[in-house]
Amino acid sequence: MADNIMSKAATMEIPINSNGDTGTLTEDDSLEQDLQQVMVSGPNLNETSIVSGGYGGPAGGIIPTSSIKDIRMKSRGVNLPYSNASASRLAHHTNQHPGSLNHNTNSTEEVSRGVAVEKLDSVKKWGINTYKCTKQMFSEKFGRGSRTVDLELEAQIDVLRDTKSKYENILRLATALITHFQSMVQTQQALGDTFTDLSQKSPELQDEFGYNAETQKLLCKNGEALLGAINFFVSSVNTLVNKTMEDTLLTIRHYENARLEFDAYRSDLEELSLGPRDAAAMVRIEMAQQEYHTHREKYERLRSDVSIKLKFLEENKVKVMHKQLLLFHNAISAYFAGNQQQLEQTLIQFNVKLKPPGSDKPSWLEEQ
């Protein structure tokens, strides 16, 4: 119908009179009514479709313009409104849990705020403590501050540090002795193998090469026994120096730090006591007294720990070194005296187990 009306409107001749006015036609009223009917009953522009094919193409190529509008809005970052189903689900969840979202948000904020305040307090305490200790340390170095001294304990600590230094020197020398003596034993073993080979290839000197080879093999066997004794000695002394003594020295370092903190807060309390006694000053004095008593208890506790550890360390050192020095002496004496039986008895007495030859070398599987 619309096509018939539009073609009719396009082919109609509209007469013009001499004054430029249109002439009166019998079909004007009917044409106007037809056009109004087309405008009213015609398709909505917002709901029109685009045909992807040519004119008169199949209906499968029709694309609604509303879909194109949605795609353009999404590509421009415009959030489309919820559908009725999504809106109803959101309203139902809100009605069922009206304060859950706000409650979870507030709980998370409170936890984060608590952690931040705790970290800030710890950093503040660390900064104040570091400042006081640094101030006390420089005051002691420049002779302007006083320090708490336990003369007896300080003397024992100095003796321990000196003893540890000397024992470390023993370890260095004994390790060097093992290295050189091991080279000598390897040389003796190689020399004995050479003598054995020559005794088989030189009939006229077979006896001479033979007993020299036996002598070098016997020296090599005794040398391996002596190396086992010296290694046992070095291992025991190393445990004493680098574990037992080092553990005591670690406690001593904690004690010295506690002593420095105690003197720092003691000096701070003395300075506040000499100042004015108004309300604010009394509050600071009371807080300084609490800190003073706290660090005093820590200092006295660590001083007691150091005294006990020094006592047990001295007893352990005497016991260990008595055994190890006796082993070292008997093994060296038996080896250089050529007393193989005494050397073997020494190893049995001190429970020294020798490693089988070639045990230190990696296996063929490990070498791959």
What's the count of strands? 2
Tell me, rounded to a whole number, the average pLDDT: 76
The sequence of SSEs as H and E is HHEEHHHHHHHH
Q: What is the CATH class designation of the domain at 152-352? A: Mainly Alpha
Structure classification:
mainly alpha
Estimate the strand proportion. Answer: under 5%
Number of helices: 10
Oligomeric assembly? single chain
Stated plainly, the CATH topology of the domain at 152-352 is called Substrate Binding Domain Of Dnak, Chain:A, Domain 2
Written overview of the protein:
The chain has 368 residues and is mainly alpha-helical. The chain has a domain of 201 residues: Arfaptin homology (AH) domain/BAR domain (Substrate Binding Domain Of Dnak, Chain:A, Domain 2). Helix content is 77%, strand content 2%. It has ten helices and two strands. Helix 1 crosses helix 2, helix 6 runs antiparallel to helix 7 and helix 8 packs antiparallel against helix 9. The longest helix has 68 residues. Keywords: Coiled coil, Golgi apparatus, Membrane, Phosphoprotein. One of its GO terms (cellular component) is cytosol. One of its GO terms (biological process) is intracellular protein transport.
